[in-house]
Amino acid sequence: MARCEIRDQYPVTEGHTLVMPRRQSDIDIGFVPTKGVAMHWRFPRSLAVLSAVIIFCFIATHAAVGAETAVDLELIVAVDVSGSMDEEEHILQRQGFVAAFRHPEVINTIMSGFIGRIAVTYVEWAGPVSQVVTVPWRIVDGKDSAGSFADILADEPIAFIRGTSISGGIEFAAGLFADNGIEGTRRVIDVSGDGANNVGEPVEAARDQALAKGIVINGLPLLLKPRSYFLTDGAGLDDYYRDCVIGGPGSFVIPVTEKSHLARAIRRKLLLEIAGPRVRLYYADAPALQAKVDCFIGEKIRRSRDYE
Questions:
Q1: Taking the CA of residue 106 as centre, how many other CA atoms within 13 Å lie in the half-sphere pointing to its CB?
Q2: Cβ–Cβ contacts within 10 Å for residue 290, how many?
Q3: What does the pLDDT read at residue 49?
Q4: What's the rounded Cα separation, in Å, for the pair 295 and 245?
Q5: Predicted local distance difference test score (pLDDT) of residue 52
Q6: In contact, 176 and 121? CB cutoff 8 Å
Q7: CA 44, chain centre distance (Å)
Q8: Is 173 within 8 Å of 193 (Cβ atoms)?
Q9: Nearest Cα to 100, choosing from 241, 269, 218?
Q10: Which domains are seen in the chain, by residue range?
Q11: Confidence (pLDDT) at 18
């Protein structure tokens, strides 16, 4: 099986010695294919280069075995199409993603990645077992493929389904990474919605299971109606997403409070996800963030309405 090697010195093989001048700050990178000639490269020992080396090894190994397609990012766009969303919101949400994949800034960001391509699929979700793959996995590596993805998405009908099960959406989306013929350096689920989880499994459990698989979850809470601003005790849907939905390295929430801001927020969110997480600094004496929201608030509100 092909393997990638990172080592501090060149090998000494039987019958001859390979002697090359080297600095202590150098490292040697070796790629040993299943068949053929082994190759080695020398690089300065720096954090930036080591990061690139890891990706290089990832690409070389997968290319050698002719396995899965290597990409910078495997992205699942998971959008809420439950009954709480009105028709205008459904259309604006869809149009926002279509416009984003046609936008030059998004396309250039995709192409500027180390590998220069991403894989993306578009999922619509509502109840616990109500999810639809609107656009299956596609490779996006430039203007043509991004435009093709946008065209397919624009032509597909929008699903209208009852129930708000964020947990069901996350569980369904997480399963789509398996056996998709793609291998990304990162896996991200992009969740958008206008309400809290109110049916199905607890949202924290679904989130934690996804995080355990190395999946990052980001959130786009839609605070377009007054009821979304405050769920309980002054906490809003954006707080709920922060405490109960998102997770993983570099995860974030971008709340949307105006319909006119939705397209821009979607584009910004995609740019952040494609570019990758940024380094955050935490101070040792900083107080730990405490959860402010009851992650079962959606279920409790639903039950209280059922009893009315």
A1: 26
A2: 6
A3: 52
A4: 9
A5: 57
A6: yes
A7: 31
A8: no
A9: 269
A10: 3-67 (no CATH), 70-275 (3.40.50.410)
A11: 31
Helix, strand, or coil (residue 208)? helix
Residue 284 Cα distances to 243, 250, 288, 291, angstroms = 21, 19, 10, 19
User: CB of 240 within 8 A of CB of 228?
Assistant: no
CA atoms within 13 A on the CB side of 203: 27
pLDDT value, residue 172: 98
- Distance between CA atoms of 109 and 275, rounded to whole angstroms? 7
For 234, list phi and psi in degrees, rounded to 5: 80, -5
Nearest to 196 by CA among 159, 222, 234: 222
Tens digits of per-residue pLDDT, 283-292?
555 555 565 7
Token pair belonging to 44: 């300065």
Strand-pair partners of 222? 256
Which residue, among 100, 114, 111, 115, has the nearest Cα to 142 in the 3D structure? 111
Helix axes 262-275, 87-102, angle to 10 degrees: 40
- Counting as low any pLDDT under 70, the low residues of the chain are 1-67, 227-234, 279-291, 304-308
pTM over 0.85: no
pLDDT at 302: 73
Neighbours of 298 (CB within 10 A): 23
